[in-house]
Amino acid sequence: GPTGDTGPTGPTGDTGPTGPTGDTGPTGPTGDTGPTGPTGDTGPTGPTGDTGPTGPAGLEAFGGRFSDTVQVLGVTLLGEVQVELENTMPAENVTYTIADSITIGTTGTYEVSFMLRGNASIGAVTTVAVRLNGTDMPSLTNTQALTIATGTEFNGSAIISLNAGDVLDLAVSALVALSLTLASGTNATLIVKMLD
What backbone torsions phi and psi does residue 98 show, to the nearest 5 degrees? Predict the structure, then answer.
């Protein structure tokens, strides 16, 4: 005879066992960098370095004189007159016992410089020089043709050898008699510095 109707579905069976774990997937992109952490404690101080070389020594001898008062120098024909340098500068190994002069206390090589500013009563060739023991020094001599009543500055410097006991001063001479007026303010200087 004909096949009968299909019977109702039976109840679901029990879940089967879990299958094996699949392969690990690819690594995801790197995340953003986190904020910087707090600064750690300062480390201990390192050892002290070696002592550096000793610096150069100061000048062994130096000094100077200057004038800052008005003075009129009366220069005679072919004569020479000393410049008054009534003020003294700090000094080391030089002395000021002789008026308007510098006496060297230590033999050595010195830089010597001078300056003088003045107005002449007439136009004439005039010389300003540093004297060593009373004699003009060619390397420290400045000669100029002055114009009447016109301010002129004489200056110069040189490196020379000096002996203990040498005396330096500043003097003015001219080919004719004249008056040289040093105005107010610093109007004349004579400075020595020992180099070696």
Answer: -95, 130
Residue with tokens 């109707």: 5
Average pLDDT over the chain, rounded to whole?
93
Q: What pLDDT, in 10s, does the model give residues 106-129?
A: 999 999 999 999 999 999 999 999
Handedness of CA 127, 132, 137, 141 (dihedral sign): negative
Q: Find, among 159, 102, 89, the residue nearest to 131 by Cα.
A: 102
Amino acid at 116: L
d(CA 126, CA 108): 31
Query: Which residues partner with 143 through β-bridges?
Result: 127
Tokens representing 183 are 């105005």
60 touches 93 (CB < 8 A)? yes
How far, in Å, CA of 46 to CA of 43, rounded? 9
Confidence class for position 55, pLDDT limits 50, 70, 90: low
- pLDDT value at residue 68: 97
| Residues 86, 67: Cα–Cα separation, whole Å | 6
